[in-house]
Design goal:
The structure is a single chain. The protein is α+β, with helices and mostly antiparallel strands. It folds into two domains: 1-46, no CATH class; 47-84. It is 50% helix and 17% strand. The chain has two helices and four strands; from the N terminus they run ββαββα. It has helices at residues 23-29, 49-83, and strands spanning 7-10, 17-20, 34-36, 42-44. It has a two-stranded antiparallel sheet. Strands 3-4 form a two-stranded antiparallel ribbon. Strand 3 (34-36) and strand 4 (42-44) form a beta hairpin.
């Protein structure tokens, strides 16, 4: 899933100020998250809690991999500095 940019905007239907994704922007990157309402306006679908849990798990795994890479880089740097 591509990044979902959040913006401050005014809801056309109600005039209410809100923060969140813009449906028209999501149509380009994540069309599966957009539907057309009965009123004809595009609406952003709610993500299920399981989709959010999966995204968090993926981020956690990526973070762990980056930590491990960082440790390897630091060890190599220390080895190089010790040789000088």
């Amino acid at each position: 899933m591509a990044g979902i940019p959040l913006k401050d905007y005014t809801v056309i239907k109600t005039g209410e100020n809100a923060t969140g994704p813009i449906a028209q922007d999501l149509l380009k990157t994540n069309p599966e998250l957009v539907r057309q309402g009965d009123d004809g306006y595009y609406q952003v679908s709610e993500l299920s809690q399981w989709t959010l849990v999966k995204a968090i798990q993926e981020l956690k795994a990526e973070n762990q991999a980056l930590k491990e890479q960082n440790q390897i880089i630091l060890m190599r740097l220390n080895e190089l500095e010790a040789k000088q």
